[in-house]
Each structure stands twice: as C-alpha cells, then as structure tokens.
C-alpha cells in the first residue's frame, strides 16, 4: 500500500489473490525464494501519456492515457482498453493484475496488461470519438505490436473505437498488422464470436457449474446487470439455453421485465442509438424502470453482474441470499466487493469469480490472434465450439486445483491458484528478469 498509494482497486485485487495463496507457498517454497509475489505485483512497464484532441466546437480537450504492461512471462501483454471518466492508474492496475491470472487460466500464450483513458465517450459525436482515438493511438502505437502488446476493447471501447484505433495504427506505421489489436470487424481481420465471447463464455461457465451440481439453465430466472457488450451476449446465450432473463440495467437504474427481456429491442436501443434502459421500459408494456436502486433486489436463481467493479455490495448480496439465489457468476471484472463475496459464500451461494467466468473474451481474442497469424478465418460454429471447450476446461481446472489445495468446490481458490502457479512457473524458468 505504501508503494502504490491511493490505488484502492489495485490493493483490493492484489489482496483477493494473495488470500488464496497460503497453501501454495507452503507447498512450493521456491516461489518465495524467487520473490515471485513481489515481482508479480510490480508491472514490467507503466506508460502514462497526454491525449490532446479538438472537439466539434473547435475547443482543445485534454485527457490522460494509460497502458500498464504487467507481465509477459507467458506471451505478449494482452488486455483491453477502457474509456470511462473513472479511469485512473489504480483502475488500470487492478484490471492488468487480474488479467495476468485470467490469461494464464485460459492456457493460451498471452501475458497480462490493460490500458485506458479518463475520456467519456457519452454524448460525444462519432467525429469526436475518432479524433480522440487517433490522438490516443498517436502515442500508444510505439508501445504495442503483435509480438509485444495486443490491446482489445473494454468498457467504452467497442467495434467503433477499435476501428478508429486500428486505422490510426495502420496509417502511422504503414503496416497492415492485423495482430496488433483484437476485437476488429469481421471484414478487416476480426474473428467470428469475439463480440459475443465474454457474454457467451460467462453463460458456458454457469452451465458447467450447474451441470457439476446436476442442474441446468432450463426455466431459471436470471438477472444480468449492465446492458453493454458483456451483458447483452450473456442475456442472449442464457435465453438460448432456456433461461428467462428478467432484469437489465445501466448506470441510471434498472428495468424489470417479467415477460423476459426482449433482446432485439434492447439491442436496437443500446447498439443502434446508444440509448438508456429507461427507453426500453417506455417501449414495452411488461417492463418497468426503477431509477437508481439495486438490481439485486430482483429475485433470481442466477445473478450475472456484467457492468463494472464493486457494483454488488454486502446489502445486495444479503438480498440475493434472502431470495434463494443459487449462483453468482462475475461477467464483469471484480463486480463483487470482498464483503459481498463473504456474505454470498456464508449464505451458501455458489460464487464464481470474473477471472474464470469472463475469460472467454480474452480467450477468443487469442483465437483472433491465431487466425491473424495464419491469415485464416474460421466459421462461427467452429469458433464458438472452441470457446465452449475452453470454458469447460477452465471450469474443470478451477475445480481440480481447488481439490488439490484442500478447498473443494471453491472457484476463487481454484482460479487464483491455477492462474498463479502457471505464471509463477514460467517466471521461475525465465530467471530473474
Ligand atoms: P460496455 O461499455 O459495453 O458496457 C458497460 C455497461 O455497464 C453499460 O451498460 C454501462 O452503463 C454499465 N456501467 C458502467 N459503469 C457503471 C456504473 N458505475 N454503474 C452502473 N453501471 C455501469 O462494457 P463491457 O460490457 O465491455 O464491460 C463490462 C464489464 O465486463 C467490465 O467490468 C469489463 O472490464 C468486463 N469485461 C469485458 C470484456 C469484453 O470483452 N468486453 C472481457 C472481460 C471482462 P452506462 O452506459 O450507463 O455507463
């Protein structure tokens, strides 16, 4: 904490991992001898830069850009870019730190990194977003590359932003280096299923967790928070597997729709016009909008927090326990506070952490990198099948590792330990670098 002052989210993410590692350090003293934990907590490189741009009124605007290249023991740094006014170094470092273990858990050759800016895309025109992205890339380009660091999207960065970023990278470098960014459009080097992958992967993980308990998704009530990329495709796959998604949200409040979320309408409102969930309620008789409030008050069997960090607190967790929720699976990164996690586990709710649950996004990014490297493009069915197999193997690895380290059924211990040992072993092999 003294070394990284004021970075509350980073401290929270580190503490959460360290709390799982006691049994590992007991069994593997060589990790302590090599100072693996202290080295893991120190990013290999942190870049902070000025992002000046001109708005539609001709005024100069200024934002701050970040890229934290955390760990490259397993492969090039890999992790998204977030554009949101709350972004500062502590957020980027928490996300980058988590990314190391998540990426390791996928079993694919990718290191961990994350980036972003305090730029707020809300209310900005396409032309403003483009000028911002061009300015951001004008600095970032010198730090990234298909063998170095491969960014992707995150909150506020979707297909549109990746397009503007890639366009500027291509222009500055005079290289059509498809593998430098993932989340690209299908016609210019993107992969089928990348857009859907984090949400679909989240539901594939839940399916495995239910199956391990002799259950399935058919007829289950599901609440999904957020209405962005992850939330929309988690809703789509949950519905396709027979569940009923009854609530959705954004930062202004939540909507309950007892008839089940009409996904075509939600996509039209969100993707087409970048609208609000209140617009959804206004256009659908079976739905009502609650301004502010907690979406977790809506009774459900399965809760999928898919919006942002620390969105599910201890009160929300208590409501979920009271209402008989079976499983909470994190589609977002660190959406559940440590107190809430405790309440859920003490209340007998199965808790599955984001590192494992939402790893389908980065795994499919790695599949995009494979296709770019071989100048190939796979079908939707084939790519979705690969994603489904990856999620099933992540689920199995979490359970096996939890068993091995004396915490049967504990997905948090399983994910943290499996991710950690994979990276730590590579760091040992590479020496003190
Ligand atoms: P989007 O920008 O597409 O959507 C974010 C959604 O969350 C929006 O509905 C937004 O509402 C809502 N939201 C954001 N901040 C808040 C807040 N403070 N309170 C309430 N709601 C909020 O982002 P993604 O769907 O891509 O990302 C969602 C989460 O999933 C993040 O934690 C991200 O790190 C994680 N993730 C994303 C991956 C990906 O592939 N995209 C991969 C792995 C994890 P509003 O529009 O009102 O801001």
Characterize the structure shown:
Among the domains are: 8-13 and 41-180, Rossmann fold (3-Layer(aba) Sandwich), CATH 3.40.50; 196-352, Rossmann fold (3-Layer(aba) Sandwich). Helices cover 47% and strands 16% of the residues. The two termini are 24 Å apart. It has 433 residues and is α/β, with parallel strands linked by helices. Helix 8 packs across helix 15. The strands form two sheets. A seven-stranded mixed sheet has the order 9-8-7-6-10-11-12, sandwiched between helices. Strands 1-2-4-3-5 form a five-stranded mixed sheet, with helices on both faces. The chain is globular. The longest helix is centred in the C-terminal third of the chain and has 25 residues, at 380-404. Bound molecules: NADPH dihydro-nicotinamide-adenine-dinucleotide phosphate. NADPH dihydro-nicotinamide-adenine-dinucleotide phosphate binds at residues 153-156, 198, 226-231, 250-252, 306-308, 311, 331-333, 358, 361.
